[in-house]
Amino acid sequence: MATMAECRTALDRLSDNLASADGDVRGAVALNRSLSCHITDLDDTFTGRLENGRIKVLDTHQGPPREKAEIRLAMTGDDLVAMVAGELNFTKAWASGRVKLEAGFRDLLRLRSLL
Hints:
Layout: H1 4-19, H2 23-28, E1 32-39, E2 44-51, E3 54-62, E4 71-75, H3 77-84, H4 90-96, E5 100-103, H5 105-111
Parallel strand pairs: 1-4
Antiparallel strand pairs: 1-2, 2-3, 4-5
């Protein structure tokens, strides 16, 4: 089972990957939205913002998200680490229910290029 430190490292790596992306991916993440990522097996949540193509983690806390972020993710720590490492396909994990992504309709349309 992935630790919170490994999950934080994965989020930082994902942020770096998004910041260096080009084309459709760069356009999809050029949002300014609140973000939460609930690590279900650890029952911990990272909260922060997606700003200018980067994920900025502002806080972590025990339990599910305390407030409804504009973009909400939920998955196990192992799935987060595997997705960022390229070992787990996000679309397949999302379609099978292993990863949950919730956002407003417009944001989902923008984020679809990531899928």
